[in-house]
Design a protein that fits this description.
homodimer; two-stranded antiparallel ribbon; 43% strand; alpha+beta; six-stranded mixed beta sheet
Amino acid sequence: MSSTSAGGTVRLAGMTTDNKTIVTQALQQMVATGGTDALEPLLREDFVHHKPDSTSSTKTEWLADVRAVPIDRLRVEILHLLADGDHVMLSTRRWLDGGGPGIAAVDIWRLEDGLITEAWELVEPLADVAANLAWWRADAAA
Amino acid sequence: MSSTSAGGTVRLAGMTTDNKTIVTQALQQMVATGGTDALEPLLREDFVHHKPDSTSSTKTEWLADVRAVPIDRLRVEILHLLADGDHVMLSTRRWLDGGGPGIAAVDIWRLEDGLITEAWELVEPLADVAANLAWWRADAAA
């Protein structure tokens, strides 16, 4: 039954690897190795990374953004992991060892044939949470 | 086959209502009616709403927070909707008609027997997206 699970599975050379496993292994390897070498081959060449303000990055641009983070100090706690069809949603808390309070982040990944083809990311710094609750107060007067 | 879909379905008096439908109908009715009357009966009495900074609200507290928003001016665009087991993830853009740029938000809902029992929310004001990309620069020096 694993080939028909909700996770959107894909068969590769007789193996069944589900999309949740692909995404979490990429993250774990990145944090463990402190680099993007394990992430790069999982992204399709025409990968697009979307920001909430409708800007986006190519594969090369996004990998450069990821490499700019001091990954050796990065700590990641996985809070939620959902898969539905071709999409995986990963909710995490991320912070720098010895640094500030960090962020909550949600990444939504779209996969095709075992490769990540598209991603959407939301970031909320923990220091902003109280102010963000009343976002509409500032916006109402805009 | 609808009773075995990935959405986590529940049978009520012979009907099959999936969790995605419950969550989106609650949202649509709230925006359409400008109030929380349609939302209230969908939340279990011991409902808890979690913020990323580990604060939380009870059902009564959260409904009061929702009612504080000028719902008659609220506009909501659904970007992603995923369901996996008991959980539904709803990614939206929200703004006030005639107001500022608004927010991107992700809500994760946990349902039991057709009622919403728990929620986690992330908010990113669109005006903050560029600054949030480099969250670790501020945190590294903290």
